[in-house]
Amino acid sequence: MGVPLPIIIMIAMMMLMFGVSVIVLLKKKGNFFTQTIDAKPKQSNAQQEDKKI
User: What's the whole-number average pLDDT of the chain?
Assistant: First the structure.
């Protein structure tokens, strides 16, 4: 148990940041997949055209 406390804190912070980034990426991917499954491509194209007009 001769590991300095600052090193432990640094590793813990890195793990936290990595975990948060992974969760955010998973949420973004999940939203993308649900949108593509729920809305058919034709519907999404029509919505995009409406927005352009």
Answer: 74
